[in-house]
Amino acid sequence: MIKKMTEKEKMLSGAYYTYIDAELAAERDIAEDLVTDYNRLHPKKEVERATIIRKLFGSTGEKFSIKQPFYCDYGYNIHIGENFFSNFNFTVLDEAEVRIGDNVLIAPNVSIYTVNHAIAIDQRNAGIEYAKPVHIENNAWIGGNTVILQGVTIGANSIIGAGSVVTKSIPANVIAAGNPCRVIKAIPENEL
């Protein structure tokens, strides 16, 4: 007998699933509680803040800083490397894995969306959606008010200009910007 996949298993595999599911709702509630606690802490309570992030995220480096407020859907799909920094209003809809490398800088008001709703109206109204991972490689810098959409990889050392909407993967060692985001120029070797 073939075991039927749970909605969570479907979500994590990239298949269509419904977010109207008791298990997923309970996990979002846990994340929302932790995020609320995190955002209410005084910024100088660094040990308490780090403890919450380590409980919330799938993995972290030893050294990281996430300015408040921060928002996410599940938390356990987020993995950050060493020396990670995000500024105010970092939002991550992490229905799929979000893997961020070492020495990554995230400016204010950056959003990462791994999830997308179904196109067909009846499916969309039924809560059907799907998710694809996002990867940001080492030493990337993401400018303010940038939106990174599902399935995107941002290559090592690259810079994404403020206000960009990143709909497709960006290679390593470039400066890219715009809506949609596109490569403007390579970073000279002497500046890498």
Structure characterization notes:
The protein has 192 residues and is α/β, with parallel strands linked by helices. The chain has a single domain, classed as UDP N-Acetylglucosamine Acyltransferase, domain 1 (3 Solenoid). Helix content is 22%, strand content 29%. It is built from four helices and 19 strands. The protein has helices spanning 7-13, 22-40, 46-56, 121-125, and strands spanning 17-18, 64-66, 70-72, 78-80, 84-86, 90-93, 98-100, 105-106, 111-113, 115-117, 128-131, 134-136, 141-142, 147-149, 153-154, 159-160, 165-166, 174-177, 182-186. The strands form four sheets. It has a seven-stranded mixed sheet with strand order 2-5-8-13-16-18-19, with no helix packed on it. Strands 3-6-9-14-17 form a five-stranded parallel sheet. The chain has a four-stranded parallel sheet with strand order 4-7-12-15, with no helix packed on it. A hairpin with a 4-residue loop joins strand 18 (174-177) and strand 19. Helix 2 runs antiparallel to helix 3 (46-56). It is globular and about 60 Å long. The chain starts with 6 loop residues before the first helix and ends in a 6-residue tail after the last strand. The relative contact order is 0.11.
